[in-house]
């Protein structure tokens, strides 16, 4: 493990366009955070695209801050 504490990782969050701006994503995030609140996690982490400014604004509005970590990927 590369972290000293446990973190819940949110890997995908998508809301169909016709249901956006209705609180669906906020409710999903709250539900995920509520599920882990007594599971000994010290926080939450997630990834989003550098160009996905809408998602970035959403996460920041919900208390998330950008970290300095790098993600690497190799496609096969």
Automatic annotation (TrEMBL):
PANTHER family membership: ACETYLTRANSFERASE
> Which keywords does UniProt give here?
Acyltransferase, Transferase
Q: Where is the N-acetyltransferase domain?
A: 1-76
User: What Gene Ontology terms describe what this protein does at the molecular function level?
Assistant: acyltransferase activity, transferring groups other than amino-acyl groups
CDD domains, from UniProt?
A: NAT_SF
Identification of the protein by name: N-acetyltransferase domain-containing protein
InterPro entries, per the entry: Acyl_CoA_acyltransferase (IPR016181), GNAT_dom (IPR000182), YpeA/RimI_acetyltransf (IPR050680)
Q: Which organism is it from?
A: Paenibacillus donghaensis
Among Gene3D superfamilies, the record links this protein to: 3.40.630.30
Keyword Transferase assigned to the entry: answer is yes
């Amino acid at each position: 493990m590369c972290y000293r504490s446990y973190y819940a990782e949110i890997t995908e969050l998508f809301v169909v366009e016709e249901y956006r701006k209705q609180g669906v994503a906020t409710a999903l995030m709250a539900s995920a955070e509520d599920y882990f609140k007594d599971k000994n996690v010290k926080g939450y982490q997630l990834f989003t695209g550098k160009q996905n400014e809408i998602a970035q604004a959403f996460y920041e509005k919900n208390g998330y801050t950008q970290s300095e970590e790098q993600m690497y990927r190799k496609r096969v």
